[in-house]
UniProtKB/TrEMBL annotation:
The lineage of its organism: Bacteria, Bacillati, Actinomycetota, Actinomycetes, Streptosporangiales. This is LytR family transcriptional attenuator. Belongs to the LytR/CpsA/Psr (LCP) family. Residues 83-225 form the Cell envelope-related transcriptional attenuator domain. Residues 311-335 are annotated as: Disordered. It comes from Allonocardiopsis opalescens. Keywords: Signal. Coiled coil: none annotated.
Length: 462
């Protein structure tokens, strides 16, 4: 399936790289344009003057691929027509010093105008870009200012034009459906490998883990696209820019002049200024009336998230980096954690026995499950040897989840680990005292609406 990852990357790089190269008449003429707004009525109100929100869509159009290529990429047959996978909102604040990216899970159960309740990715199939825009506006209450779309072949070509992209796997993945077969660690993948990476759902979190990987991949693409080796090599940069321009379809309001203005405004935006999040979910295994498995949004938390976009406010701030520790990890004292906002039922934990005490991992697994945490994989031994203190390791965008886990493990400490994905890792020390029950605050009292955000820098391999 084609994913919005390529669309987001292409549009962000197109805007954020800046420079007149991308917005001359030559470049502007290479962009395909459509009108997705022409007949829309009853739309949300405009946001603050100067702020802009894009709807970015990945179209699952396989029409340009041969039977042999479809087989090689594990894509099945070309059934004709086009669908969407996940969609994303990209918000540029009016000061042009921050970009917020909000993933809309493809299985989100929403109301599609004229068609009734269905998964959000059906909107494009029913009515193309116009109905996709209308559906997202109705579901979010956010007015869409611009539209961008990328096709399947574009994803492969953009990655290959960059000479591959670096990814990190905290655990090995063997997925015959997507074709991804990689051990744990850091890898440089080409377009075909990248497609398998962002398609796989073989990890415990399913589609939500996949969204997390997509966001990480966007960050890696941005890093590669803005690398000095790309920007300073005329041949490489020209190949990349031509690929992006030939890949993206935009609304007809994005004229060459408008793109030039945006590019100049965003030239100072760095990866630290690009923040990612996903619509908070109340239920990820909802059984729809049609029998399909779908995602239900957390109504209050989603309202808070989309309200921030409409008001041109920043997303929930990720936790500030803690002091660097030995080995490059960042550590923060568990006792100083703010109010808990992620409940145990929403957290997946992997236990590693770093105490050298036989049976301690299995005991911790059982006690964490009893406290409501998800522990899908049995504990194993910590490859780093013995540790003196129990450690709760987490990626930057899962700091809120990690705080809940640390609160349940008296005496533990928090440690940020860039290579981890969506779950939280507990490394048991000899000080392990068991698990105590914890509760998360209701979203409205927690103050962040359950929104967990991470910057593009946080999402890149550590």
């Amino acid at each position: 399936m084609l994913l919005t990852t390529a669309a987001v990357m292409s549009a962000l790089v197109l805007l954020a790289s800046g420079g007149a190269w991308a917005f001359t008449g030559w470049a502007s003429g290479r962009l395909d344009r459509i009108d997705p707004f022409g007949a829309l009525g009853d739309r949300p109100e405009d946001g603050p003057r100067g702020a802009l929100t894009f709807l970015l869509v990945g179209a699952d159009d396989r029409s340009g691929l041969t039977r042999e290529e479809l087989d090689r990429l594990n894509l099945g047959r070309d059934e004709g027509g086009a669908r969407t996978d996940t969609m994303m909102l990209v918000h540029l604040n009016r000061e042009r010093d921050a970009i917020s990216v909000v993933a809309l899970p493809r299985d989100s159960w929403v109301t599609i105008p004229g068609h009734g309740p269905a998964k959000i990715n059906a909107a494009y199939s029913f009515g193309g870009p116009q109905l996709a825009v209308q559906t997202v506006e109705r579901a979010t209450g956010v007015r869409i200012d611009h539209y961008a779309e990328v096709n399947f072949l574009g994803f492969l070509r953009v990655v290959d034009a960059l000479g591959g992209v670096r990814i990190c796997l905290p655990e090995p993945i063997s997925d015959p459906r997507s074709g991804l077969q990689l051990p744990a660690g850091t890898h440089v993948v080409d377009g075909a490998g990248a497609l398998a990476y962002v398609r796989t759902r073989s990890t415990a979190g399913g589609d939500l883990d996949r969204i997390d990987r997509q966001q990480r991949f966007i960050s890696a693409l941005l890093e590669a696209a803005t690398d000095t080796r790309t920007l300073s090599d005329p041949a490489r940069f020209t190949a990349f820019s031509e690929t992006v321009l030939q890949t993206v379809t935009v609304d007809d309001g994005l004229t060459g002049g408008a793109l030039l203005e945006l590019g100049n405004q965003l030239r100072s935006v760095s990866m630290d200024d690009v923040t990612f999040t996903t619509v908070p979910a109340a239920q990820t295994d909802f059984t729809a009336p049609t029998g399909e498995s779908a995602v239900l949004w957390d109504t209050e938390a989603a309202r808070e998230l989309f309200g921030r976009i409409s008001r041109d406010e920043p997303l929930a701030e990720p936790s500030p980096p803690a002091a660097a520790q030995a080995g490059g990890a960042a550590e923060e004292p568990a006792q100083a954690a703010p109010e808990l906002i992620v409940p145990p039922a929403d957290i997946t934990v992997q236990v590693r026995n770093g105490a050298g005490i036989q049976g301690l991992g299995a005991r911790a697994d059982e006690e964490l499950r009893a406290a409501g945490f998800n522990v899908p994989v049995p504990a194993d031994n910590w490859v780093g040897g013995t540790v003196e203190q129990t450690v709760v390791r987490h990626a930057a965008h899962r700091a809120d989840s990690a705080r809940t886990v640390a609160a349940a493990l008296p005496g533990s400490r928090l440690e940020r680990a860039g290579e981890l994905g969506d779950g939280v890792e507990v490394v048991l020390g000899p000080d392990y005292q068991g698990v105590r029950a914890v509760e998360a605050a209701a979203p409205d009292s927690a103050g962040s609406g359950g929104i967990q955000a991470a910057t593009a820098t946080d999402n890149v391999c550590a």
